[in-house]
Design a protein that fits this description.
This protein has 180 residues and is mainly alpha-helical. It has a domain of 116 residues: Arc Repressor Mutant, subunit A (Orthogonal Bundle), CATH 1.10.10.10. 65% of the residues lie in helices and 7% in strands. Strands 1-3-2 form a 3-stranded antiparallel sheet. Strand 2 and strand 3 form a beta hairpin. The two termini are 34 Å apart.
């Protein structure tokens, strides 16, 4: 995807040979590929029925989790260009899943909110993916959720972990105050 803003984080990672004798961790790479394929595939099926794709899912997910977020913040989270977001966001707004409002202090700001229709779709997609997580965590046994959280957090660039954890914590706190 040409619209992704890529950092040079990969250049700061340890060399594969020093981490794993015998070269690249092909087994983990492939397991992650297949796990992601199946994890996102559940949502892809539902999205395809309404003419949406993964980009729509990502935008709707974060707008639903962070109602009132600025477009600039969404661009920063997704690491995509304004042009790429523009098309997807326009479709979500035109189809009634997201609304845009001017900021209260700065009218130039565009704040994004899910509509009731958007919240319902975001929740349906999250429930599909949650079922897959629940099954996998059940198969892995006790304490697997915390181990999975630690692993996924460790996969994030160290300099971004605090920001990601704070983002998730804010969304969790917001969602506790919203009816579902």
């Amino acid at each position: 995807m040409a619209d992704i803003n890529v950092s040079t984080a990969a250049s700061r990672l340890p060399e594969p040979e020093t981490e794993r004798p015998g070269g690249p961790a092909f087994d983990l790479i492939e397991l992650l590929f297949f796990a992601y394929r199946d994890f996102i595939g559940d949502a892809d099926e539902l999205l395809a029925k309404i003419g949406f794709g993964r980009a729509h899912h990502r935008v709707l997910h974060f707008v639903n989790r962070h109602p009132g977020m600025r477009v600039a913040d969404l661009l920063d989270i997704l690491k995509i260009t304004k042009q790429s977001l523009g098309r997807v966001l326009r479709e979500l707004v035109d189809d009634g899943y997201i609304t845009q409002r001017a900021g209260p202090a700065d009218r130039r700001q565009r704040l994004l909110y899910p509509t009731a229709k958007g919240e319902a779709l975001a929740l349906e997609l999250a429930n599909l993916q949650t079922r897959r997580f629940v099954r996998a965590l059940h198969e892995c046994g006790p304490a697997s959720r915390e181990a999975a959280r630690r692993f996924l957090t460790a996969m994030i660039e160290p300099s971004a972990r605090g920001e990601v954890e704070a983002l998730i914590a804010r969304a969790d706190q917001l969602s506790r105050g919203r009816p579902r």
